[in-house]
Amino acid sequence: MSYYFDKETNVESKEIATRTNINGKLYTFKTDNNVFSKKGLDFGTRTLLECINVDSINGDVLDFGCGYGPIGIFVALNTSSIVDMIDINDRAICLARKNAKINCANVNIFESNIYSNVNKKYDYIITNPPIRVGKKILYEILIKAKEHLKFDGHLIFVINKDQGAKSTIRDMKDYYQVNIIGKNKGFFVIDCQNH
């Protein structure tokens, strides 16, 4: 599983095209071996995208750990935001760029190990974070987001109850104003406001 958050992969490439309907609009995404959810849009990301209020999303948005790109592409096509997308995985970056072109999304995609290459502040950081990196790195991702959010900016993420949703929500209250903005089949969509 570590390949989702490794820079390079030596597993053979086998791209497939998937089509998915999100909130009544059809999207095409190319996926591949060694990227998260290669068979198509995963339920956690779908829950996240269906719960965010696109009418309230504006300004600068960062899709953290973009994978093949569904979050950033969805936000770019449904809001007037300026969208940056980052991942550490080279194959994911390549796919995200292809998918941005396929879906005619105007986004900026670049490689970053956590926030190493992020040098601006955002109104929103939106992510389906890589839970399998373990709690220490997960919390580094979620807590360090604060340094890259504008005042009153929002970190929005999805996490499953079986992956520690309740303890994560509790712990994030030490850093943010926390609201649960959606739930579906054990997945929680969490809005953490910087204050």
Low-confidence stretches: none
Counting DSSP H or I runs of 4 or more residues, the number of helices is 5
Q: Which overall shape is indicated by the principal axes computed on the Cα atoms? A: globular
Q: Estimate nothing, just give the exact number of structural domains.
A: 1
- Largest sheet, strands/sense/barrel: 7 strands, mixed
Report what the structure shows.
The protein is an alpha/beta fold and 195 residues long. The chain has helices spanning 43-51, 70-78, 90-102, 135-144, 165-172; strands at 16-22, 25-31, 60-64, 82-87, 107-111, 122-127, 149-160, 177-184, 187-193. It has a single domain, classed as Vaccinia Virus protein VP39 (Rossmann fold). It has a seven-stranded mixed beta sheet, with helices on both faces. Strands 1-2 form a two-stranded antiparallel sheet. The protein starts with 15 loop residues before the first strand and ends with a strand. The model has no long low-confidence stretch (mean pLDDT 92).
